[in-house]
Amino acid sequence: MPGWARRVQGPPGGGRYPREWRAVPGLSTRAHAVLLELERVHPREPLFRADFLGQLLSSWRTLVNRPRIRHSFSEPDDPCYCEFGHDPPQWARSELEAACAALPLPVARELRALLRPLDARFRARTLPDLSVPADRPWWYRRC
C-alpha cells in the first residue's frame, strides 16, 4: 500500500470520519479519506473532490433512472440536461470515467463498482445510435 494511503486510513485517534464527509453514497470511509488527502494535495482538481464526484454520480443516476429516457440529448432546452448546465447528461458519465482513470486503483475500483449497475441499466433501457461516430464513448452512442 502506498505511503499516502497508509497516512489517510482514518481520522487522527482512530474512529470514523463524520457522516457529512461521505459525499459519494456507497463509497467506503477509506476511499473518502483518500479523496480528502488528494483534495488537500491537489486543491484545484475537481475530480478529486468527493462532493463533485457525488454530484456527477447523482446526475448519472438521475438520467439512468428516469421513467423514460429521451431519444435526443443534443437540444440545449432539453430537460434531461444535467444540473451542470451546458453539457448533455452523458458528460457526467465522461467525467466519472476520467475520475476512474485519475484516482488511485482502490478508489477507482469502488467507483467503478458503483457505476456498473447504472451502466447496465442504461444499456438495457437504450438502443445503439448509429449516427454517432464510433470514436465516442459507448454512453454517447446510445439513444
Please tell me about this protein's structure.
The protein has one domain (3-68, 75-140). Helices cover 47% and strands 0% of the residues. It has helices at residues 3-7, 29-41, 50-64, 90-102, 105-125. Helix 3 (50-64) runs parallel beside helix 5 (105-125). The relative contact order is 0.13. Residues 1-12 and 74-86 have low confidence and may be disordered.
Layout of strands and helices, then pairs:
Layout lengths: L2 H5 L21 H13 L8 H15 L25 H13 L2 H21 L18
Helix pairs in contact: 3-4, 3-5, 4-5
Rg from C-alpha positions? 17 Å
Number of domains: 1
What value does the average pLDDT take? 76
Structural class: mainly alpha
Count of DSSP E strands?
0
Distance between the termini: 42 Å
Give the SSE order as H and E letters: HHHHH
Globally, the shape reads: elongated
Tally the helices: what do you get? 5
Q: Helical proportion?
A: 40-55%
Instruction: Tell me the fraction of residues in β-strands, as a range.
Output: under 5%
pLDDT < 50 stretches: 1-12, 74-86
Biggest sheet layout: none
